[in-house]
Specification:
With 196 residues, this protein is of the alpha+beta class. The protein contains seven helices and four strands, in the order H-H-E-H-H-E-E-H-H-H-E. The chain is elongated.
């Protein structure tokens, strides 16, 4: 009676081939890029949530959460390019904007949202509104993944599907000179990804 099975050499060859295939697959999917893209997608979702909360607050109150009143002579509707942190104070007042948007105020966002976007290590959001009637509120962040960096560069350079930037877009802040000087042969850095 003869035992059937694999020899040690055959097993080593199969294990080696599987290892080579695993390395090839990992290098093809680039796990670091996938993690960065996942983080950027999460940050973009937070930016959308922030814009929606600001829009709902404005629809309810008649003025932005960074204002103390709907009267522009009392509280300017203009919001310069501002980093969104828990110590962000309303324009002309002493109340914290994120507190007004969260359960301490209008409850447009959850406290967990405020904690997340203010945490150390988070890719922080920046917000902008030029204060003009009908202008958009922009929420921006610095992308970490190549695909988001490319999208931000395309938008800042006025190429691709975006075309010309809107008149109310924060060009000077979201598209600094070092952003638009880069070509696509190297991954561009310095451009902010902005919504809407």
């Amino acid at each position: 009676m003869k035992n059937k099975g694999f020899t040690l050499i055959e097993l080593l060859i199969v294990i080696t081939l599987l290892g080579i295939l695993a390395v090839a697959v990992l290098s093809a999917i680039n796990p670091v890029e996938q993690m960065n893209r996942s983080r950027d997608t999460s940050t973009r979702s937070d930016a959308e949530q922030l814009i929606n909360a600001v829009d709902r607050y404005y629809a309810t109150k008649g003025f932005y959460p960074w204002q103390t009143s709907a009267d522009p002579t009392i509280s300017d509707p203009t919001l310069p390019f501002t980093e969104v942190r828990t110590n962000w104070v309303e324009n002309g007042g002493d109340d914290y904007v994120l507190r007004k948007l969260s359960s301490g105020g209008a409850a447009e966002v959850k406290e967990s949202f405020v904690s997340r976007i203010d945490a150390d290590g988070y890719n922080h959001l920046w917000i902008y509104n030029d204060g003009q009637q009908g202008s958009s509120t922009y929420a921006c962040f610095i992308p970490k993944s190549s695909s988001f960096k490319d999208d931000a560069w395309y938008r800042c350079s006025g190429q691709g599907d975006f075309g010309d930037l809107p008149d109310d877009f924060p060009v000077d802040d979201a598209c600094p000179d070092d952003c638009t000087e880069d070509e696509l042969d190297a991954t561009p850095d310095g451009c902010y990804s902005c919504l809407p």
